[in-house]
Amino acid sequence: MKGVSITLDKTTATLNPGDTLQLTATVDGTSGAIVWGSTNPSVATVDSQGTVNAIAAGTAKISAAVSGCTVVCEITVENKMTWTVYGTDSCYLKISGTGDMKDYTALSGAPWSKYHSKITSVIIEDGITSIGAYAFYNFFRISAVWIPASVTRIDANAFMPGISQITKVYYGGTEDEWNEIRGVTTFYKCLSSRWGYKIYYSQNIS
User: Is the previous residue joined to 111 through a cis bond, with omega within 30 degrees of 0?
Assistant: First the structure.
C-alpha cells in the first residue's frame, strides 16, 4: 500500500532462555492491525502485543507486518553458563547456568578440557538441562559427578572415554526421573564396566 511504513525499535537482540523482550512497532499511513510472527517458535515466540519470549538456544526472526509491509528483528538466544575449577590438583569443576550445555567434539573439546588430568569431581548445578557431547572426553580422573534434576539429556560420549572411573553419581531427582533422562541407558552401560559404582538419588546440589 502506497504511503504505508512500519519500523521496529530494535532490529537485533541477544537473550537467554526465559528472558522476555518488548518490541515496539511504529506504523505510518494505516490504522491496520499489526501481525506478529516468529520463524522459529522453538527458539523464540512473540505474542500479539510484540512481547518476545526466549525459549531455547538458537536464532529466530521476529516479524511485524501491516498492509503488506514487513520488518524483522533477528533474535539470538544463548544459554547462560559459567564454570569454575577449584584447587590445584585433585580439582573439582562446578558448572552453573541455564539451558542446554553446548555439544563439543573430540578435537575441539570443552573449555575446561585443559584441566582433564586434574579434575576428579564434577558438580553441575540446577538449571543446566543437558550434558553436552564430549563434555568430559578423556577425563580419566573423575570419580564423582553431581547431576541436577533439571538435566533431561546426556549426549553422546559426554563422559567417554573415562566414565568407567566414576564410582559415585549424585542425582537431584528420583530414580524414576533419572531413568527418564535421554541417553542415560548408554551412561549406565559404560558405568557397569567398573564394579562398585553407586547412584544416590534426591541429592541436593549446592
Answer: no
**CB 7, CB 20: distance < 8 Å:** no
Q: Which positions of the chain have pLDDT values less than 70?
A: 1-2, 162-164, 189-196, 205-206
Question: What gap in Å lies between CA 100 and CA 173, rounded to an integer?
Answer: 18
Give tens-digit pLDDT for 148-187.
Answer: 999 999 998 898 876 668 889 999 999 999 999 998 887 7
What secondary structure, in 3-state letters, does 23-38 show? Answer: CCEEEECCCCCCEEEE
| Cα separation of the two ends of the chain | 59
pLDDT at 195: 56
Strands 153-154, 144-147: parallel, antiparallel or unpaired by DSSP?
unpaired
Looking at residue 160, its pLDDT comes to 81
Cα separation, 177 vs 143, in Å, equals 22
CA torsion 120-123-124-125 (nearest 10°) is -170
Q: What is the pLDDT, as a whole number, of residue 1?
A: 47
pTM of the model: 0.67
| CB-based burial, 67-85: b 16+ in 10 Å, e otherwise | bebebebebebebebebee
Residue whose C-alpha cell reads 590445584 in the numeric block: 88
Which is it for the CA torsion 78, 80, 86, 92, positive or negative? Answer: negative
As beta bridge partners, residue 58 has 77
